[in-house]
Structure formats: C-alpha cells, structure tokens
Amino acid sequence: MNLRILAIAATGVVLLAGPALAQAPAAAPANPLDVIPDAMPFNQPYGAPITAAHAQRLIAAAAAEAKKHGWALNIAVVDSGANLVAFERMDGAQLASIAISQHKARAAVTFRRETKLWEDGIQKNGFNYAITLDGVIASRGGFPLIENGKIIGAIGCSGGTGSQDAASCGVAAAMVK
Question: Is the pTM of this model over 0.90?
C-alpha cells in the first residue's frame, strides 16, 4: 500500500514539474533595436541612373499635383548615385526648401527608403540614434525611385507641410515601375 502511494505521489510530482522544467520560449528583446532580422532590411539593389528626360517628367507630375492644390514646392530628382539630375523651384516656393528638397532626395536614395520612415522612427518609436547618422533627414517627402526592382534615383519635395510634400512627390514616385 505504501509503495502504491509513493508511486502515485511520484507520478504527481513528474506531471506537475514537467511543464516547469520545459524550456520557456525566449523572451522578446526589451529594446526593439536588439532584434536581429533574418534578412537585410532595405536591401534594394541600385540600378542604372535615371535619365534627365525621365527626371523632368517626374518633376512635372509632382508639380502638377502641387499646383492642383495651390502648393508652391521645390522638387529635386537625384540619380542612383545621389547626384542632382533635375530640379524645379515653383513660383513662390520658399528658399530654404531648395536645399531641403535635394536633401530628401539624396537621403531617400542613399538609405534606400522613404524619408518618412526616419520621421516615424524618431517621432513614434524613439529611435533617436537616427539623428546621429550622416545624411538623415527625418521629414517626409523623399522617395526612392524603383524601376524593374532597382533603385534608379529618388525624388524629394519641400516647401509645404510634410504631408503636402509627400503627396506631391508620391504621385511622381508611383509613376515609376
């Protein structure tokens, strides 16, 4: 009888201790920057540089969108090497935004992502380290231009609010396939 009670007790201990002894799943890192992705993010390859004629068509599209709303913008297109290819300062666009539009375009091509992602990273996610990286601009309105899966350049708009800049340049970026 005692042996039977001992066997039942031992079985109970094993059943209760089993889940406690099982390996717990790894806890998620406390800091999202400590997550190690399986694939390289923003790994879009660079392609041949955008032509001047193509850049001018994109600027015309962005300017048409801005004019439709009464916005005066500066619009820049850079090639896949971040060199200025075409630029337009719409009548009445603020002077400070000349350099900003070009900076947005250069940042979008060199970092291979929309500049809005830097804005969101800093403002929404607290990734303040981003302000220490050379060439970052944390303001929407810069878009990489991807044709046939390769970055051929980027477009940047400035002069309105960030959302106005993004709306105008987004129209042009969407034209590239």
Answer: no
Residue 156 pairs in a beta bridge with 76, 142
For the chain, the residue count is: 177
Every domain of the chain and the residues it spans: 2-34, 52-174
pLDDT tens digit sequence for 57-91: 999 999 999 999 999 999 999 999 999 999 999 99
Distance CA 15, CA 1 (A): 21
Strand 150-158 to 142-147 pairing: antiparallel
Q: Which amino acid is at 93?
A: A
> What are the E-state strand segments in the chain?
74-79, 84-89, 142-147, 150-158
Tokens 């048409």 belong to residue: 64
Tell whether domain 52-174 is in CATH 3.30.1540.10: no
